[in-house]
Structure to design on (197 residues):
């Protein structure tokens, strides 16, 4: 009888509708970041007022922060694995590691922003400053949302009944968001820091 009252969340695609909703949201985010990246590329090289990108960008520092974010993808994969295989301790530990690595990345970004401001690059200094802060700032905002998302799952997993029977779905769906944020950063890092200005 209990099975008859269970809420079915599967769509005609065979994918849970909560996970499908995340995919739809991430598709819209692709358009959002695509617009920001396109804007950066359109105005690239038009900063006539110093400081210019080559004056302020610290590739070794940002490479370190990129490594931290990429390692958070690994810990997220392990958290999903733990959730799917009933290894709750592993899931909790890896969620915590992912949150800490995400905070580490944000710490790098705050330091970089403060350094740039000290060097005279603000949002209104030149075209590079405006497009740089908007693009990387919105990405940092998404990382912050991801950290809060994962923290809520971690706190939920500490409750008496944890995340319930759907814990693998909740953690897997959060993983989709987190991996998306990481992939977007790889594109941003390549375009801003590695491509010649």
């Amino acid at each position: 009888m209990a099975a008859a009252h269970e809420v079915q969340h599967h769509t005609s695609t065979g994918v849970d509708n909560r996970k499908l909703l995340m995919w739809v949201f991430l598709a819209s985010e692709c358009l959002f970041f695509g617009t920001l990246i396109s804007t950066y590329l359109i105005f690239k090289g038009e900063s006539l007022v110093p400081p210019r990108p080559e004056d302020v960008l610290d590739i070794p520092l940002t490479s370190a922060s990129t490594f931290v974010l990429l390692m958070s993808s690994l810990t997220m994969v392990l958290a999903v694995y733990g959730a799917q295989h009933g290894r709750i301790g592993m899931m909790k530990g890896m969620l915590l590691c992912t949150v800490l690595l995400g905070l580490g990345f944000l710490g790098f970004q705050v330091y970089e922003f403060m350094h740039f401001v000290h060097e005279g690059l603000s949002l209104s200094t030149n075209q590079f400053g405006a497009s740089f802060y908007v693009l990387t700032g919105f990405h940092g905002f998404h990382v912050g949302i991801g950290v809060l998302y994962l923290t809520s799952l971690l706190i939920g997993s500490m409750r008496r009944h944890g995340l319930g029977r759907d814990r693998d779905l909740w953690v897997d769906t959060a993983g989709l968001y987190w991996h998306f944020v990481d992939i977007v950063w790889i594109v941003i890092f390549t375009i801003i820091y590695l491509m010649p200005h």
Observations:
- Residues 88-118 form the longest helix (31 residues).
- DSSP finds six helices and no strands in the chain.
- The chain has one domain: 59-197.
- The CA atoms of residues 57 and 193 lie 7 Å apart.
